[in-house]
Amino acid sequence: MMDLELLNDTICAIATPVGEAGIGLIRLSGPEALGIVRKIFRYKDPELPPRSHTLRYGWIVDPVSGELVDEVLLSYMSGPRTYTREDVVEINCHSGYAVLDRVLGLVMAAGARLAQPGEFTRRAFLSGRIDLSQAEAVIEMIRSRSEQGLLLANRHLRGDFKQLVEDWLEILAQAQSHLEALIDFSEDLADEAGQEPSLYESLLENVVERVARPLRTARNRFEEGRVLRDGLTFVLVGKPNVGKSSMLNGFLGKDRAIVTAAPGTTRDVIEDSFLLGGVQVRLLDTAGIRGEPDEIESRGIEMTIRSLSQADVALWLIDHSRPLSAEDHRVYEAIGDKRCVVILNKSDLPPAFTAQTVQERFPGLGPAISLSVKNPSDIDQLKGRLAEAFISKPVDNCGSQIVPNIRQKECLDRAMDSLLKAEELLRSNAYGELISFEIESARKQLEAILGRSHDVELLDRIFLQFCVGK
Ligand SMILES: Nc1nc2c(ncn2[C@@H]2O[C@H](COP(=O)(O)OP(=O)(O)OP(=O)(O)O)[C@@H](O)[C@H]2O)c(=O)[nH]1
Ligand SMILES: [Mg+2]
Q1: How far is the CA of 143 from the centre of ligand 1 (A)?
Q2: Nearest protein Cα to ligand 1, atom 2
């Protein structure tokens, strides 16, 4: 791959999804952005000079044939008050594959290079307008599939994470400079380390209370963030005919799966999704697990087992109106130690056993919920309980919570390791050099979150997740 770090040529891309839509946007960034566009743009009022941060009306013209290609609005923004800090020009064309392709072709013929995925955002990062955690927030924002995920991404984009990490870095830098001073001083006196109990105490306070502790809190939000960002997967399991497909339909509020009175109706895995507490939930309906299935069914059961392994939570349905059987035990075994909610369905019919029996036969599971999936208000109640149990801490609008992504979490883990070592050393009055070394490694990890000591490979990995044009 080219070394994008060193390039300051002018790049271009189609910035909107290609297809039939109201408008399509072609974006250019770089020193020649305006110069290039002027070769193919005819202003309606040519006597007016181009002014930064304004829109102008005109036509894209093929400079070779003189043909009018599209009627457009042109926005010109001179750097550094732009997305990339370079000069940026955006051409608002009529959308449609042919038009956008044609205009992009003209822009390239006039001297712009087609951008790599994420290259606009990469330039924003390289020019220092945003740090790496903010660049990652742009991807998060684009990919966000739920309101909660969007809220998180917004917070990171605003720079909350950056601020937090910078605060920690500042405290650690101070701690380190105190230690360095002590090291110089004790060399003079040919002294042992740890002669400054009060200094070590205040270092402990700063390093542990003001950095290590909040750092751990942030790190532990990773799992929660994964749910908010990527959503959750629920799988409906149970023996045949217990009402799994009816429950899928109930959750979705539409007849998605076939429901019949005959056992063995569902044979494939049926998948759909709905929103729960602002989070996207993928719901899988599966073939019922039974003792002696025919061939098609046993394939379905294999798929059920596979779906179970993919899911975050199993919703286990038991028919409350029929006695428990060996098939229910097979389901229990298949669930294993997967997180599970037990649901006793068909509560409108007389029960064939007590909830107590379920607890005794199937130990290790939480209390069973009794309901009828045919009753919409039961479904609503169940949704509420699931949201409470699995999406317990919705991100609030005003808090300054941040939730790391996996890369950031790994940096936090490594910083945490070093800080724990530093803490131990401080408590055992070790040499200042040793402590300083650990603090230094923690700082390196925190700097990596912001992308201060970035390597090109890491940047490639991050920015190639973007679409072209962002
Ligand atoms: N009375 C009553 N019948 C229900 C209830 N829920 C489901 N049923 C009925 O039970 C039968 C089976 O329902 P399904 O939703 O197809 O069950 P399933 O678990 O998907 O069955 P398979 O796909 O065969 O494994 C149908 O006749 C439903 O109408 C309920 O709460 N009360
Ligand atoms: Mg079914």
Answers
A1: 36
A2: 346
